Structure formats: structure tokens, C-alpha cells
Amino acid sequence: MSIQLIEDQILHFLSTSEPEVLCVSGHWGVGKTYAWNKYLKDALAKDRIALKRYSYVSLFGVNSLDELKYSIFENSIKSSDIGVDLNLEALASNISAASEKFVRKTLRVLQNTPIASNYLAGLGPMWFSSVTETIICIDDVERRGDNLSFREMLGLVSALEEQKKCKVALILNDDAVEKDKAEFRKYYEKVIDTSLKFAPSAVECAQIAVSGDTQTEKILREACVVLGISNIRLIKRIERSVRQIAPMVSAFDEGVLKQAVHSLVLLGWVIYAPGIAPSLEYIQKKRSGADILMLDKNKPIPKEEAAWNALLDSYGFAGMDEFDLALLDGVRDGFFDPSLVQKRGSKLNDEIRAATVSESFHKAWEMFHDSFEDNQGEVLDAIHQSAMEGAARINLINLSATVSLFKELGRPQQAADILKHYISIHGEDRELFNLQRYPFASDVKDPGVVQAFNDKFATFEKSGRDSRTVLLSMANTNGWSPDDITLLSTLPIDDYYNMFRSNKGSDLRKIISACLQFDRIGNATPDMREISKRAKDALRRVGQESAINARRVAKYGVFIDPKTEISPPSPKITDDAH
What we know:
The chain is mainly α. Helices cover 59% and strands 6% of the residues.
């Protein structure tokens, strides 16, 4: 049933005084209540509400017929007060509505007060008798309490229509009444006059949930439609995230906001609609051109994953970047860290403003993706040229994918040229070559790229701080900096070994203690645990050199199997270990 038809039927229902019962059903989250409230306010604005009173009741937790009756009375307002905000700011201009609401709420409180209840208990039927010629919306029908049956509830609905000249609208999730389906159907068909199936399309959901006309709202609607999101509750939840993030990136290029909206829609769908959307793990592994080269040729892609690939390609999602990781944290937590968004957004902003540098690279890869022409030579030539020209703006994932592609398609020399040029261009950018701290390091699959980056990073370490001095400082001050952790977590095991073999006395004890202290820290990071692991690997090598050293390292939790052959001492111990 089209949304326009449902809207027309609801407006007709509201605009006539004839008693009747309307039922709006549909799956959870599709926006039945949201649409009802929207159409109700639209009807009020157009002066098309025939009855003078309105009452909205949620059956969530309502456990008896008397409680339902009182809820209908308690929530009854003038139709002209629909949508009135009764907060303190609006109280002065809505004193009539506020007063009536206050009196009805007070009666419930008094009814639950021991002394007053003796006098008021018998007045419930009288209060309910005042409910007449009223539009009544009963929502969350399937969430009623166990002691309120469908038979009782629908019996009251029938009485409201026939005896009290009311118009009653029921809102329910049709997939949540299965356990009482037989009883529900038995009475439902006798009571309901008009039944509407609310099943909006993605386009209709987006138009209902996001009705504004700003550029941000247009991007949000378009993104929801491409992904086929037909859950208004979900769209509104995503919209809240968008409204939170927009002010944080307002000073950046509009491309940052566009990516933020684009990513928030996808991440919100993935996290809030499990089973319908692809998994977060799949999204995190998605790497556009790179994922093609990560495939196991002996293991076919599951058909569902292949379909997700097609959808995300259509959506324009190439893969998550560091800015997206900040957004993911915010979606999970329900709020965004402004400093992290600013940091990651600033980096993305710089990349967007310099996008013309790498535009030819992406255009070249489009030649790879967007046709099945026999043009291998042309494609590789274009990618090679653009990779050399745009090396300053190509990310590591795309570099790895490009190098792998050239090797696989028989151009190893060009692969080597691209890698060498990339490293040369980025020169002294130490953090770029630190794969230990790169959040997507597991997706850098080409072994040549990994080795080249590790070798380059090692040159920074050899020309940097003395690791022995760092460890002694950590032992003496019981503190460290992030740079200390980075240095030690990437220090080769050989260097740890040389350091242990070349130091004696209190210095040796302090160095070992500083290395192993992270085993007793409850919130140790992966990099901290890596320091301890590398140090123990080096101690194990020391312990294997002699029986006495095996005894010495045992107190550090490094046990050498007596059956293990003791290796001869290393022929060379350097005194300038890092």
C-alpha cells in the first residue's frame, strides 16, 4: 500500500466525526507512530480534525482494563492542543492545556495515595464516562501487560466506537502478535473497520523521516535510499548523529561533512540493523581495489558478500579511513569526541583540498573497475603514471594494492619503481612508516611493501634515541612517553638480546624490570605487551646459551626445557645496542 494512500486514509479518518476503528500495522521500526503523529499535526494545521478531543495511550506495561480506561481519560486533551509543548517556557501561552493536564495527572497520584484512594476509588468509572466523541490512538498494542487480553482490549475499543461515538486508531507491529494470533484474529475482524498496512519504500521512509531541504539533509536522504533503508526509527537515529557531527566539521571543506554523512548512514545501518545490513567486520575489511587482490583464489566469494560488494560499490564506499574510525566510536558510544573528530577531520580536510594531486590515480583505477575491455596495458600504464605523479597523496592501502597488481600482472620492475618512489617522496615522515601504529596495517598485504616500510622505519630508530637510556629512564622515573612505547615495541629482538648481554649489575636489573613491568599493568596496550613479549623472547635466547643462564632467566618467568639443546653463545655482541 502506497504511503500516499495511507496518508489519505488517515486524513479522511481524522476529518470525519463518524465513529470507526482504524488499524495501522507494519514491521517494527518502519515509522508507524512517527507517521501517525506527522499526519495528525498536518490535519490540525489544515483544520481537518473533526472531533474536539484527542487521547494518545501506549499499552506498554498497561496491565488491566481499568488502567487502560484511566489512561485514556488521563491523556485526553483538546484537539487544538495536539503538539503543544508543556514545558516551563511554553507554560504561559498554553496555560489552559497545562492546567487540564496537571489536574488529570494529579488525580492519578491521589488515586495511589492510601487516604485519598478511599474516597476516589469509586470515581474511576465516572471519570471514564467523560470520555466521549474523542479520537483515541492506542499504540504498542502487542506490548500490553500479561493481564490485559486482546479480547478485553478490543471489547473496550468496540464500546468506545459504538457507545461513546469515538474514533479509535490502533497501532501495532504485525510481526509481534504471533503468540496470540488466533485470539487476536477472532476479535480483530469483528472490531476493525479499516486496516492499513504500513510498508513504506526506502524513498518514502527517507522523505517522511528527513523532510528538510538543506544540502546535508539531501545527502542523508540520498544515502538512505541507495542503501535501501526502510526503517524510519533507524533513519531518525542516524539523523541525530549527523546533527551532532555537523557543527564539529563546519569549518572544514564541505567534502568532510559529505563524507561524515555518507559514513554515518552506512555505520548506523550496520550497527543498528544487524542481520539486515552487512557486518561491521565486513565493512572494516572492505578496501575497494585492494580487496580484489586480497581474495583467496581457491575460495569463492559467498553470494551474499558478492551482493554486498555490488551495493557498496554503487554506494561509493571504498573503505574506512581514520576519520571513519572516529565516527564509528561516536556511533557506538552515542556521542562524538570533538578533539578526535577535529584531528581526523583536519587531516581529511587537507587531503580533500589536495585531491587534484591524486585525482588521476583514482581515475586510472576506475579504468580497472568500470569495464571488461581487453585493455590491460592501457590500464597499467595509466595507473603507473598516476601513482608516480600522485605518490604524495596515495594512502598505504592503495599503494599495497597497486604494487600487488603490477606484480600479479607481470610488471615487477614497475611495482618496485612505484614503491621506491613512494618511500622517497615521503622521506622523513616517521609515523607513516610505523606499521605498528597504522590502524589498517592488517590490510597491507603485499610483503614487499611491508618489508620496505619496516626497513625504512628501522632507519629512524637507529638514528633516534638510545633504547638503553630510555629503559633506564623508565625504571628510574616509573614513567614513559608515547614515543618511548613506540620505540621499544618495534625494537628488534636482536637489539634486546644484545642489550641484555652487554649490561651488568643494577643497570641490567633495571632494564629487565622496565621491559617486563607491563605484565603487571592491568590496562596495558598492545604495544606495551609487545615490549614484554620481545624482551622475553630475547631472554629465552640468553637462557638457551648455557645451563646457568637458563637458571638466571627462570626468575623472570622464562623457563628453558632441560631437554632443549643449549646453543653456543652468540659470536658477536654489539656494545651500541639501540
